[in-house]
Specification:
alpha/beta; single chain; eight-stranded mixed sheet; 302 residues; four-stranded mixed sheet; binds ligand LTMAUQNL; 2-enoyl-CoA Hydratase, Chain A, domain 1; 11 helices
Length: 302
């Protein structure tokens, strides 16, 4: 017998930060021994869907980002991601597989429409949410894997780097912090995270050129840990990675992770306001606004 629960997760306008977990159905699935077991959830809102499936044997949650067309991260979507992580913490998830429910794109990074023609007020709301969502993902108490099943430029790469392990579907997609290519600068905590991931030498080369790595290049420099040929293979590798933690005491694991990440986390926590001021000064400048406008046009012209 397969037991399935459906989370009924409210639309953010109604439930704000609290995700409601409602046991809705208990049913038998005839003649089935191998169907995925567990909790199934769907988070719907005008600002993106987040599908959550929790395997009730392992406690591992698969979180699928879904905001068509390219999973770009706007304020509402970031808020939904943060709420989902809060719920997984509350429900004591044993692991996270962060992936995309869209074909070809993990996430296209920040929604450039949040940066272009923005006001100081709207940018403040957006950036504060980005900081908050990232801090949550970077410090989850459970182990995390990014299953990068599509392109991951800019903040898409940043989300992936904040997971503890990265598995990327090859060979067509690219990943990297491409800010300099857009005429902007990666924030210091993106830079810190890339240095933590690649070491200073490779991070400097990658960041100054805004390099977008193919999966095999990313594997070579250590931006990803494994390259796979199919999503199924990726899921199996992610589950295998997470399964090693089943026998490691959770508190020891979590404290070790936080000790290693502490410098990068506290650098942002202590300098949130400075970071915001940097962003406002840079992004609202006439020159950067012009560049962002041209970049958006070039995306639309394709
Ligand atoms: C002292 C300084 C201190 C501090 C620093 C200050 C500031 C730092 C600020 C910001 C950091 C920025 C981080 C980022 O993440 S910026 C975004 C980076 N991402 C990109 O550059 C990706 C751009 N997109 C693409 O390359 C392609 O779209 C992609 C490969 C993802 C998919 O290609 P595909 O051919 O499948 O789709 P498209 O036809 O290109 O796109 C469809 C549709 O989506 C729109 N689009 C794409 N990306 C974005 C985006 N990131 N935001 C908003 N909209 C996006 C695209 O325009 C198309 O729209 P439409 O034609 O209307 O359908």
């Amino acid at each position: 017998m397969i037991i399935s629960f459906h989370y009924n997760i409210g639309n953010q306008g109604i439930f704000h930060n609290s995700i409601m977990f409602v046991k809705k159905a208990l049913f038998a699935v005839p003649n089935s021994k191998s169907l995925p077991i567990g909790l199934v959830a769907r988070f719907s809102s005008a600002t993106g869907d987040i599908g959550v499936t929790v395997n009730d044997k392992t406690g591992v949650a698969t979180v699928k980002l879904q905001r068509a067309p390219v999973n770009s991260l706007n304020t509402g979507f970031l808020k939904n991601i943060e709420s989902t992580l809060d719920s997984l913490e509350k429900e004591k998830a044993r692991g996270l597989i962060l992936t995309s429910g869209l074909p070809k794109i993990f996430t296209a990074g920040l929604d450039i429409l949040e940066l272009y023609n923005c006001t100081t007020e709207s940018l403040t709301t957006f950036w504060t949410q980005l900081q908050s969502t990232w801090l949550k993902l970077h410090a989850t108490s459970f182990p995390s894997v990014a299953l990068i099943n599509g392109h991951a430029p800019g903040a898409g790469c940043q989300l992936a780097m904040s997971c503890e392990y990265r598995i990327m579907l090859g060979p067509k997609y690219t990943i990297g912090l491409n800010e300099t290519k857009m005429g902007i600068i990666a924030p210091f905590w993106f830079v810190d995270t890339m240095i933590d991931t690649l070491g200073p030498r490779q991070a400097e080369l990658a960041l100054t050129s805004g390099k977008l790595f193919t999966s095999s290049e990313a594997l070579k420099v250590g931006l990803i840990d494994e390259e796979v040929g199919s999503e199924e293979e990726g899921v199996a590798k992610a589950e295998a990675f997470l399964s090693q933690y089943a026998t490691i005491p959770g508190t020891a694991r979590k404290l070790t992770k936080l000790m290693i990440r502490e410098k990068t986390i506290s650098n942002l926590v202590k300098n949130k306001d400075k970071d915001l001021k940097n962003v406002i000064d840079l992004i609202t400048s006439a020159q950067v606004q012009k560049g962002l406008g041209l970049y958006l046009q070039s995306l639309k012209k394709k």
